[in-house]
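Structure in, sequence out. Go:
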């Protein structure tokens, strides 16, 4: 039996992970959005709802990735997760959630990644949830960048000096040897769901910023070899940084799972048309997309990430680059808790 299981899958199954998700995240057909964008029924639009994947503080993509990192943290005897994000970071809220639910502490550095200050921006939404969970939340004024930060290095040192054992989680749980595994596993999960549904999703649309969600999907799609297309939609507005990070994480994840697994350049696709010029601020296409998804199938997206990837999906169906006969899957990564901080945009 084991002979038939591909090498990458055997390896993936052997890597320890925590269990933070409800199970496979739901797959949902979006009939009204499909009809609106493709009145003849040529294109069918579905969503895999990783925004509903867990009971830990609303879940989302970071919780899926952190299943692997927290198992590693616990195996190494660490007692405190240290990470970084913007003021309304979904990631730091997820880090605080998985730490709490695992009996660990969390220190999160929350930087000024978005140069706006609407009412209650540093009090409501994600940051409120982190405080409610008892997280150690530290605000500073550093601008947006997906790389490693000095403030987290200082927090790591401080935990150590106080006798704790820190585990450093980079921005978005991405630039980490285990960062790409959660979304490689997502594709394995998806393939089983497709079998049950009798359907194949030829195109996956995913928002990309720190890159490991996108990278994991690429690895999963290349490894299964079904010619599935993964299209990343940049929401970083620094697409060169994101593209480089996606390719690097995809290749390091692939070679960890199977040294023979190669990721061709053609598998790494990042569409730069929908970031609206800046990370964390919606533009007209973002608002239009959020309203359309909400007003057709009552699917709620956020102005930082998912509204931008939804704008990409809408444009591609309208322009015909996602064409007749396609079953396209919108990979919904979460993010709705930030909405409360953006009320002034609506
Ligand atoms: C973090 C995040 C993303 C981007 O995912 P990366 O893996 O960082 O590229 C997209 N959507 C939501 C809701 C997020 O929280």
């Amino acid at each position: 039996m084991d002979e038939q299981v591909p090498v990458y899958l055997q390896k993936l199954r052997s890597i320890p992970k925590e269990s933070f998700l409800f199970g496979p995240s739901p797959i949902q057909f979006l009939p009204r959005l499909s009809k609106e964008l493709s009145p003849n029924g040529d294109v069918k639009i579905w969503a895999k709802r990783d925004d509903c994947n867990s009971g830990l503080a609303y879940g989302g993509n970071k919780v899926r990735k952190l299943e692997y990192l927290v198992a590693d943290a616990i195996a190494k005897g660490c007692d405190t997760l240290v990470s970084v994000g913007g003021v309304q970071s979904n990631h730091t809220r997820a880090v605080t959630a998985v730490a709490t639910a695992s009996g660990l502490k969390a220190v999160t550095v929350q930087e000024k990644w978005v140069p706006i200050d609407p009412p209650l921006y540093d009090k409501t939404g994600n940051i409120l949830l982190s405080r409610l969970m008892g997280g150690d939340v530290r605000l500073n004024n550093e601008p947006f960048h997906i790389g490693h930060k000095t403030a987290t290095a200082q927090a790591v040192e401080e935990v150590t000096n106080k006798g704790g054992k820190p585990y450093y989680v980079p921005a978005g749980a991405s630039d980490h040897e285990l960062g790409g595994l959660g979304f490689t596993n997502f594709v394995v999960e998806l393939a089983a769901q497709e079998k049950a549904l009798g359907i194949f999703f030829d195109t996956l649309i995913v928002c990309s910023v720190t890159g490991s969600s996108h990278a994991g999907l690429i690895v999963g799609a290349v490894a299964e070899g079904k010619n599935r297309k993964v299209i990343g939609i940049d929401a970083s507005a620094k697409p060169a940084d994101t593209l480089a990070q996606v390719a690097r994480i995809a290749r390091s994840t692939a070679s960890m799972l199977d040294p023979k697994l190669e990721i061709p350049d053609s598998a790494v696709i990042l569409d730069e048309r929908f970031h609206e010029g800046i990370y964390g601020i919606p533009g007209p296409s973002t608002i239009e997309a959020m309203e359309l998804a909400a007003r057709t199938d009552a699917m709620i997206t956020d102005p930082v990430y998912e509204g931008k990837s939804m704008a990409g999906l809408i444009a591609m169906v309208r322009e015909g680059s996602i064409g007749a006969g396609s079953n396209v899957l919108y990979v919904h990564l979460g993010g709705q808790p930030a909405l409360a901080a953006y009320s002034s945009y609506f």
